Amino acid sequence: MRARQTRQALAGLLLGAALFVSVLPVAAQQASKRLILGQVLDPKSKAAASAIVYLKNSTTKEQLTVVTNKDGRYQFTALDMKEDYEIYAESGELKSRLRKVSQFDTRDRIVINLTLQAAEESKKEAPKEEEKKG
After folding, report:
1. One domain for residues 21 and 40
2. Range of the domain at 89
3. Cα 83 from Cα 60, distance rounded (Å)
4. d(CA 24, CA 20)
5. Residue 79 CB coordination number (10 Å)
6. Is position 82 within any domain?
7. pLDDT tens-digit profile of 79-121?
């Protein structure tokens, strides 16, 4: 009787371990996905409905786009956490600054609010190189 209970307990433990191991790849796969969301605002800090938000994978150059809802909100789901991304928004003649998301940022949910401004203002100035003295 005791041997039978021991075998049943051992079988239960093995079954539990097998189920646990089979769930690990699914959990790991889910953990490797990222969500980027936020709100696009106009120059007066009002929600920018129907703005286009661009997200580019820096490695593959694949570009995704979404249109903001009436509250200016957007989201990109199921993004690979092992990739770098660039994100910006446009609406008519207005454009936001380019923002970057690094693969080294371990957050699986990143909020990036984008503010639209005149196209000239949204361009980043490259730092000037110092002259080499020879």
Report:
1. no
2. 33-122
3. 9
4. 6
5. 19
6. yes
7. 999 999 999 999 999 999 999 999 999 999 999 999 999 977 6
